[in-house]
Amino acid sequence: MKPRPIIFDTDPGIDDAAAITIAIRNPQLDVKLLSTVGANVEVEKTTLNALKLTEFLEVDVPVAKGCSAPLLKELEPCPEVHGKTGMDGFAFPPVTKAPLEKHAVEAMREIIMASEEKVTLVVIGTHTNIAILFRLYPEVKERIAEIVTMGGGLCGGNTNSSAEFNIYNDPHAAAIVFGSGVPITMLGLHVTRKALLHRAAAERIDQASPAGHMLYSLFVHYRGGSLASGLMIHDACAVAYLLRPALFQTEMMSIEIATEGIAAGTTVSDYRAVKNGEKTANVNVCVDVDAAGFETWFLEEFCKTAGERP
Ligand code: BDR
Ligand code: CA
Rounded to the nearest whole angstrom, what is the distance from the C-alpha of residue 277 to the centroid of ligand 2? Predict the structure, then answer.
């Protein structure tokens, strides 16, 4: 089967690094671009981190720098989770490559319009770049197979009691993307909090290869859970959904984004309105995950494709 063309829109980010590492050399996927956004840390750092990953993993995937700030609010990064650099814990060799000279939104448009097959967008940061892409170039929408995004949740947040970080950081952009009519699959916190990576699996990854050692070194510094209780490698769930959808139970739901007020950034699913026929179910929501199966998949997938040298 032909590999599926995808673009990662990302803010690496330690769990972003896990997602990218596992996907970027997978023969079922054709990663066309890493487009970056400022979110976990500033966009200069997320872009540098994307370059660090492509160089270290020895892949020829372009990196394009995207938006530095959300559409309407100030950026609120979270170095307390990913470290000051956004990927603290591993001494990557100095980067020799540069990002593309064009903006990520331009790079995405070109790739999407030039691709024979519809492209899948894997959005694992804020939705700022995608919202601008849709506003500037609405013609891309029909050339997109699907957006698979890590963000939101059906029950509680991680930035405050109701909002998840990626949606909280640019709710207006998320509202544009979720309201765009493009097919969306959402992997929210209610699922990604269950999909844990424990110490034993992380240690096997560490031993598998230099790429494994790199990831393990980042995991040790990551504050999204712990190796003892299990790491929440949220963004890797988006890749798991692409490669092993059977791990997830899904349900079509109506998802709207609260953009203002104290609950801004919350993904609201109106069950009653869908039942009454007042609202349409617009998002394919992953409602549950086979957590043990996810961990086994991550370990096996890593050892199979990303575990070769480096
Ligand atoms: C999301 O927020 C970021 O810190 C992670 O990289 C992930 O994309 C989890 O809420
Ligand atoms: Ca991320």
Answer: 34
